[in-house]
Amino acid sequence: MNAYPSSFLKRLLDILISILVLPFALVLISLGGLLILITTAGPVFYSQKRVGKNGSEFTILKLRTLIKGAQGDLAGMTKNDPNIFLIGRHLRRWRIDELPQVFNILGGSMSWVGPRPERPHLVKSFEQDFNEYSRRHEVLPGITGLAQINLPDATPNETKEKLPFDLEYVEKANFLMDLGIIWKTVKAIV
């Protein structure tokens, strides 16, 4: 088993990056929240149960980017989804909607790099469909990961395509790989 994902070095990297990002994140979250309040009806934040390390559930927090009442497993999962409001499109383009997850990282339920966490009912379905799916939960879920940099527009329906990248991360994760994934993520956003 790969020891790096549970190592002090990985946790230190998560905390250091979070401390560096937090001042900027707070400003961007505040501005994004203000734009959401001004332009749409409904709450600023969106929270949802997700499955993390060892199958434990936690609550993920994001800036809301969907119209009030949007439902369904694929709501907001495609680029041109009509459920995504105008400001929400920009928040997603720059990944500002993901910034509240810095608090998940500081709290220890997430990492900067790892497989993206999924909703519990999807995890149950994927575990039945894909033999090794549960191995994703050997590590903390991340804001970004190998699947995200290789298949940036993939939806839950494309889990079969994303899974090999997630399993590669579980098996081969290391400090330099994390730095490379973070760098590629920043380049993709900017």
Molecular shape? globular
> Number of helical segments?
7
Number of strands: 4
Rg calculated over all Cα atoms: 16 Å
- Average pLDDT rating: 93
| Span of the ends, CA to CA | 35 Å
Number of domains: 1
Adjacency order of strands in the biggest sheet: 1-2
Question: Considering DSSP H and I runs of 4 or more, what fraction of the residues is helical?
Answer: 40-55%
Strand % is 5-15%
Helix and strand composition category: mainly alpha
Output the helix-strand order.
HEEHHEHEHHH
Q: Provide the low-confidence segments as ranges.
A: none
Describe the SSE topology.
Layout lengths: L7 H32 L5 E7 L5 E7 L22 H8 L8 H6 L3 E3 L6 H10 L12 E3 L1 H5 L8 H14 L2 H15 L1
Parallel strand pairs: 3-4
Antiparallel strand pairs: 1-2
Can you walk me through this structure?
With 190 residues, the protein is mostly helical. It is built from 7 helices and 4 strands, in the order αββααβαβααα. The chain has one domain. The strands form 2 sheets. The chain has a two-stranded antiparallel ribbon. The N and C termini lie far apart (35 Å). The relative contact order is 0.16.
